[in-house]
Design goal:
homodimer; about 400 residues; alpha/beta; Peroxisomal Thiolase, Chain A, domain 1; four-stranded mixed sheet; 15 helices; about 40% helix; globular
Chain lengths: ~400, ~400
């Protein structure tokens, strides 16, 4: 994956860097790639390129003639592309495929990226949604509408769980510390709870440092069938479960009722594993409170016990089950259509023992969770992957 | 499928009509659908909805919680969605899936649809492409840039094959006749060669009637695994081959070198069939000359013999292998992200003997060919499907 940052490079340059790095890492030539699944969410509105985005990104690398699919699921676009590539390999349709997520959100007009993110809701029902959360979607210069949504969810979550702004700040402190150890992270470093709380309020109770930034970047993986991996002498993490769901109408005060919980439960079942088997995880901390909610939704903590799990130190580096060792979306950055595969990159490095100063000792099983869009009170798309070292 | 037309209905209404009709035809309830693959190409630029288009279309029908994938491949978006759904079923991942293609191209600003279609090229290289074909892409009020591309290809094709404007007009006469027999076609009726030749010149040698129109519409199919079809008591056409390719750099004067020829060859190989086994076909006649080129590319005619095949009458209704019995894109219409599945609907009706006055007697095997976008001298995405009656 590229470094995530506000980048001077174009979307196709970023995609090229990540793809070339993935091919080199896997030891395969362009000619070995049998199909490509490309996640991107915003290029149509940011760069003007719709419809054949993957072909445009991959042609300069000489990747042509094979099936190329352009896959969109808002912030879960890359995880959705990964799922489709995995399915093709699992089906025996292909032996070696490329899964790529790439996004360019920065633009000389700063509102362009924010407005693009605002199309990850039902745009015909902007007004109703705005009335629910108090602000018009997709029109903020200083934030995307998703931070209004997160703030609304966060207020409910505080009521149900007793979580406080200090808890959310502690998520940021942890993840920025991790990001400081990740050369590919957009930000990172040592912050105090007070630093986080005193940063500008974006939407109460979210401060600027509790919100993931606008980022550019790309991430890619090469997936092999077992037979092809043997032939190529490739070893490495396996995908033990790849689950995508769309959202559903549910009781929002029950963390076990929405798409995240359902996707995680299905993933654990398919992998024959449970939350206790997870050694490290990357979760969708697009806002800091989301990390605590996800702890409960995926079963790392009992309902309402997210803040307690964080306070216990288990999820920080050195704890028993570090979460967002990469820095997460908060610190590593969040080029939305790349995030789902960037999480897989971090899981891969952890399971290979290649995560350097972020290494989770003896990590054997990793979970990634990546959500996208919003529709009637749930993520429009939710992805959970479980990987094992072998 | 809906009727294709310049429709007063919204994208989600069109998608709803087609989806409900497909579910009713298959005799399945919403709750039986295990995953959905949704093709759309232009909504981001026409309606402002990006990122979660399928979820937005399907939620009003109560389709939620399942995996939903948004698939984009320009005019081959629906065929690409179909391929991914077919792959999931063929893989055993799902037993019953929905594949939907939907497009709304009309807009109160008439240039919006044309400009959207103009993003099916590499938009960063508009200028080079414009220089090649002589007109700026995506800026015409009276045509999409693709007609400039087709005109350029057509001039080469005329040089190589000896095809004339009269041949192209004869394609239009045939397909408009067929469309006149199809209640879902946007246009249709009896025209003379002279009517076609004397319609307004769009780009020489293409006249208005040689160009597919701007259309709205949706088409959907439900795919079953063999076991699920048996359980549900469903019989009907089978997908014998589903092939997607991206374009490749090749010798443009050789009809057997580009993505259409390669995809067709692969499809025939997978199906264990050849061009002589095809009883009827739907091909991508986005412009009239394209139908003749496709005859040669897929192997219905020898290189250069497209005009001769047309003149022989074999491809008209009543001939041995009718092509574009639905009216094709020229007469039925071309809501770009719906077209690939609309072709499958026509093939299905033909193979079931339900095509009414368009029925090809005893049709047992059908081929569909659907191309999308343009990149360095070839379609960016190319789809060929072969279906058999049982």
């Amino acid at each position: 994956m590229t470094r995530f940052e506000k980048s001077p490079s174009s979307l196709r340059e970023l995609a090229g860097i990540a793809t070339r790095e993935a091919l080199a890492d896997a030891g395969v030539e362009v000619g070995s790639i049998e199909a490509a699944y490309v996640g991107n969410a915003a290029a149509g509105l940011v760069t003007g390129q719709e419809m054949i985005r993957g072909q445009v990104m991959l042609r300069p690398l000489g990747i042509e003639s094979i099936p190329i699919f352009n896959v969109e699921n808002a912030c879960a676009s890359a995880a959705s592309a990964l799922h489709l590539g995995w399915q093709a390999v699992a089906a025996g349709a292909h032996d070696v495929v490329l899964c790529l997520g790439a996004e360019k959100l920065t633009h000389e007009d700063k509102t362009v990226g924010m407005r693009a993110i605002g199309t990850a809701i039902d745009v015909e029902h902007r007004a109703e949604l705005a009335a629910e959360v108090g602000t018009p979607p997709g029109e903020g210069e200083d934030r995307s509408f998703f931070m209004d949504l997160y703030a609304d969810m966060t207020r409910s979550y505080m009521r149900v769980s007793g979580a406080t702004a200090e808890d959310f700040a502690a998520v940021v402190v942890k993840n920025q510390h991790n990001g400081g150890l990740n050369p590919r992270a957009q930000y990172g470093g040592e912050l105090s709870i007070e630093d986080v709380l005193s940063s500008r309020t974006v939407v109460d109770p979210l401060t600027l440092l509790m919100c993931s930034p606008i980022s550019d970047g790309a991430a890619a993986v090469v997936l092999f069938s077992e037979a092809a991996a043997r032939r190529a002498g490739v070893s490495g993490p396996r995908i033990r479960a790849s689950v995508i769901r769309s959202g559903n109408r549910h009781d929002h005060d029950d963390p076990l009722a929405g798409s995240t919980a359902l996707a995680a439960r299905e993933a654990f079942e398919r992998a024959g594993l449970g939350p206790d088997d997870i050694d490290c995880a990357e979760v969708h901390d697009a806002s800091a409170p989301a990390e605590l909610m996800v702890y409960e939704q995926v079963g790392f903590a009992a309902p309402g016990a997210g803040p307690e799990l964080l306070a216990s130190g288990r999820t920080r580096l050195g704890g028993e089950m570090p979460v967002n060792t990469s820095g997460g979306l908060l610190s590593k950055g969040h080029p939305i259509g790349a995030t789902g595969i960037a999480q897989i990159c971090e899981a891969t490095w952890q399971l290979r023992g290649e995560a350097g100063p972020r290494q989770v000792e003896g990590a054997k099983v990793a979970l990634t969770q990546n959500g996208g869009g919003w529709l009637e009170g749930d993520s429009a798309a939710m992805a959970v992957h479980i990987l094992s070292a072998d």
